[in-house]
Amino acid sequence: MVEGYTINFEELLFDICSKEDRDIAGRAAALIWYIWQNRNAKVWSNTQSSPEQVGNHAFQLWKNWFDSLQIRKQTNQTRDGWIKINVDAGFFEHQGITTTTCCVRKSNGEFHAAQTGKYNSSVSILEGEGMAMLDVVELAILKL
């Protein structure tokens, strides 16, 4: 740290995401993710990767993400005027909780809306995914 200068991590991350191109922001996100994973491994398992390993894993994660985007651009075009939805459900059986997440994008790929949900019940995978689908349909109707 330079004397008299402090770094606010939230501001730094926002700066990277808003001012840098998608590749740089993606690499930064992957690096942050693997630093966090390495920290968790140290805390919970007393294992730790070297900085070089963390950097290599982060780069590989970013490269896989980048490659998948290139393939997706070629094969996953949404028709004009249509929307694309993504859903997922999480299950916490011991707590009796089911969570849902959903995201809506316009046909040009532009982000439109997203939400998360929490239900105080344990359900099957099929029911949880169905709940997520219902959530995203309601969200799309509300936001369109």
From TrEMBL:
Protein origin, superkingdom: Eukaryota
Protein's UniProt name: Uncharacterized protein
Organism whose genome encodes this protein: Trifolium pratense (Red clover)
